[in-house]
Known about the structure:
Elements: E1 2-7, H1 11-24, E2 28-36, E3 43-50, E4 57-62, E5 66-72, H2 100-103, E6 107-110, E7 118-124, E8 130-138, E9 141-149, E10 151-152, E11 160-164, E12 166-167, E13 180-181, E14 199-203, E15 209-214, H3 220-223, E16 226-229, H4 233-241, E17 253-254, E18 257-260, E19 264-268, E20 272-276, E21 285-288, E22 291-297, E23 323-328
Parallel strand pairs: 15-16
Antiparallel strand pairs: 1-7, 2-3, 3-4, 4-5, 5-6, 7-8, 8-9, 9-11, 10-19, 11-14, 12-13, 14-15, 17-20, 18-19, 20-23, 21-22, 22-23
Amino acid sequence: MAYQNTPVENGYQVAQQLASFAASVGWTVHRQGEQTDINGSTLYYEVTISASGYPCYVTIAGYSNRIELNGHRGYDSSKRWWEQPDQYVYYNGDGEYTDSNEDETRTICELRVNPILSVHLFGGMSPTPYLYAAIEKEPGYYRHLTIGHLQKFGTAKGGMFWDVSNRRKYNGYHSYPYNHRAPLLNADNADGYNDGPGGFDTQKSDGTPYFNRFGYVSYDQNRSRMSTGGHHATELHSVFTASPIAFNARTPLQVPMVFANTYTPFGTAPAMRYVDLTYFEAGDELVVGNETWKLFPWARRTYGVRNSNSDYSGPEYEATHMYGIAYLKD
């Protein structure tokens, strides 16, 4: 396992740092470099990685104001991130990847702040490969990006996952903690909205390769190629409600158990936990035995209010209560 914290200013530089860090911890970097977006003018930094001995690839596209992820079973070095072979993103070859059908499967880590401050990177190859980024946009204000292979419960195909944290984008909804999602959730939050989640590679019951989306699959054209999956938000909510534990004041680290096709237990994410931050600040470390976990809020450690007023739509109003993520540092 490894950890580093590196100054960056935008999503382009985050992708650059992810490429270098991934290579240093054992991932295979198939390509990295500057590319031009579909409009022929916007520049972004593109990285494709995989883990030796594990199926599937993930391509990372770092723009100035966002980072996009795409999982794909095949790889073509002449194709851009949105047009890879056998991919998660629903791209119909019409020359435009932003129509409503394709938005349903795009994984977007929006930054909303420019310049940003730094990226905290965590990675390793054991017990299964993983690569995590906590992107510090302002002091105490974060976005998360997670890539890895699930520790599977059985022998199903696939297992690679890619996801980000995000907010519900309408008006001031993100001023209330439940309107944010953490990586790997079955929905954005306990309320069940879906805004820009990622997915993971698996199979149907007949063995056919299949993608699961971290959230509800609502478009008919996607039903034949992906299903709903992820960690159940209601389970996560129950743990946070009872945390810290009343009789001993301990803070549990909850393992994100991922379900495929909504109800089939599939596996867990390595070196990552959900955590209550009541007794912690952003960036604190928690030592459990011989392990050190570094803790971050989903977005910003503040209570917030339930408000849909557009006056609360700025990034300064993003609030995620005491909801946090712990990454294994060493």
